[in-house]
Design a protein that fits this description.
heterodimer; A: about 100 residues; 2 helices; B: about 170 residues; mainly alpha
Chain lengths: ~100, ~170
């Protein structure tokens, strides 16, 4: 009788343990989805993340964004330089490309 | 209800609470908190079902709630007849301690986080009550003859034992 009860208890533990594992896996998965948007928000320096997963600016600019703007301005200057160089080439180059 | 069905229900309930408690105790670590939560609520549900069944069927032979009496212990140790009163005492103590453990766990998870430490302490205490219950039941249903045999073997093996001296 005692042996039978022990086997019943261990079987119940296995069944409940399996159910608990499934529940825990589902719970962790749900937590991972819930935490995904804030994580993206943290990575992007405070910009809000919409429900569809895309990052929305919301009209706010962070310091990091400002730094990128510097690079962008620099790129624009370089483009201008290229234009100037082409103009200079057209005017003063000895050979005709055609 | 038929006593046979009552017995089957009681055995099912015993396996349910025993299995849930085992899983809850083994998964008490933070890494397995989800499993601990599930198993803990299973223990709480088992306690609630047991108390409700005892209240709904107070006259059922097996499903009624245990009612230990202090006098019954003295009577039993005096006469030594009838069902051992420690069965009822252990059953009541287990219902209270395991129930308190599950209830404090559920409350500390949602409403009262300060119950975390009392929950841990009550759970540890309940484990020892369970060990006592297992030892007592094992002794009553299978351990008594085994223990008698073991004592006889020991007394036969050692010539200086109490039994041998008296036999001479």
């Amino acid at each position: 009788m005692l042996k039978k009860m022990l086997i019943h208890g261990l079987t119940a533990a296995a069944v409940i343990g399996a159910a608990a594992a499934v529940y825990a896996a589902g719970r962790d998965h749900a937590d991972a989805i819930d935490n995904a948007a804030p994580a993206v928000q943290a990575d992007t320096g405070g910009r809000t993340a919409t429900g569809n997963g895309y990052i929305a600016d919301g009209g706010k600019r962070s310091e990091r964004d400002g730094a990128f703007r510097l690079f962008r301005a620099h790129d624009r200057d370089r483009d201008d330089d290229d234009d100037e160089r082409s103009e200079h080439r057209r005017k003063h180059h000895d050979h005709d490309d055609d | 209800m038929n006593p046979k069905h009552q017995r089957a229900l009681l055995l099912f309930w015993h396996a349910w609470i025993g299995g849930s408690y085992l899983v809850a105790y083994l998964t008490a670590d933070e890494d397995t908190y989800g499993m601990h939560l599930f198993a803990g609520y299973a223990v709480l549900a088992a306690i609630v079902v047991r108390v409700l069944s005892g209240l709904i069927a107070p006259n059922a032979k097996l499903l009624k709630l245990p009612r230990p009496k202090r006098g019954s212990l003295q009577d039993w140790f005096g006469a030594g007849k009838g069902r051992h009163p420690l069965f009822a005492w252990f059953a009541a103590t287990l219902l209270v301690t395991v129930g308190a453990s599950a209830a404090t766990g559920a409350l500390s998870d949602s409403l009262m986080t300060w119950l975390e430490d009392p929950h841990e302490a009550i759970s540890e205490a309940s484990l020892w009550v369970i060990f006592g219950h297992i030892a007592f039941v094992t002794y009553m249903y299978g351990g008594k003859p085994w223990l008698k045999q073991a004592v006889t073997k020991l007394t036969d093996r050692f010539p200086f034992s109490y039994g041998k001296e008296h036999s001479i």
